Amino acid sequence: MPGDHHAAIRRFTVLGVPISAITMADAVSTIGEWIGARTRNYVCVTGVHGVIESGRDEELSRIHAGAGLVTPDGMPLVWLAHLYGERQVERVYGPDLMIACCAESQKRGWRHFLFGGAAGVPELLARRLVARFPRLQVCGAYSPPFRALSEDEDRALVERINAAHPDIVWVGLSTPKQERWMAAHVGRLDAPALIGVGAAFDFHAGIKRQAPRWMQRSGLEWSFRLLSEPRRLGRRYLVNNPLFVYKIALQLAGRRVSGGA
Fold first, then answer.
1. Which pLDDT tens digit goes with each residue over 173-223?
2. Residue 179, CB-side half-sphere exposure with 13 Å CA sphere
3. Residue-wise DSSP of 40-78
4. What's the rounded Cα separation, in Å, for the pair 261 and 254?
5. Residue 139 near residue 111 (C-beta atoms within 8 A)
6. β strands within 80-222, DSSP E
């Protein structure tokens, strides 16, 4: 069964989604605790898109509620945390979380399995990560087909991952597909940590460019990604972002009214 360590981690709620009130160091430390205890958990790296999709989908909302960590992936969530009094919270961005865990792994010997990305991408990612972190142990890489796996295929995949004995399974399937996959497999995989990082596979494999750091820090990364992939990401940003702003305005107004303002 999945572990229950997440019960002790303070969270703040954004449109019904419980976000972990953490820093990057907290996230890496918590993952390390899971590995040490051999409990099984998954991490949802969640921004505006994940919050809005959770509002449309009860199952996705339940998946977030059951996660060991729900990291604040976007700056709007960090700003809301600060507004709610969680001043220590910082952005725990999927690509940066992957790098932070790989760096820690060089000291602690954690083993990694890369699941996701287009054909050849996880293998390329593995080579690039090992080139950057020479003592990193990547014990497997697999790119799934762009279709649902049969029961036999899925069973074989679970056996393949378990046979590699990873401590962390990185899942690069995009939201909400990766969240559904982690929730469905956390009880079947022996790995203590399943971490959904989406585009981190393409970024660190060198397939796609990341937004400059100043855009990431200022909350403008979405505009960089929209210009890079307008057809794929147009609806995500042009519909979900304004909807998020509208709903947050209502939530904040509700907080003021309930507080007597």
1. 988 999 999 999 999 999 999 999 988 999 999 888 777 887 777 777 777
2. 26
3. BEEEEEE-HHHHHHHHH-HHHHHHHHT-SEEEE-SHHHH
4. 10
5. yes
6. 111-116, 137-142, 168-172, 193-196
Instruction: Write the CA distances from 53 to 131, 244, 254, integer angstroms.
Output: 36, 10, 21
Give the amino acid at 152. D
Calpha distance 111→109 (Å, rounded): 6
85: left (phi over 0), alpha (psi -120 to 50) or beta: left
Per-residue tokens: 158: 């679970």
CA-CA-CA-CA dihedral for 182, 183, 189, 191, to nearest 10: 60
Amino acid (one-letter) located at 29: S
Q: 255 falls in which pLDDT band (50, 70, 90)? A: low
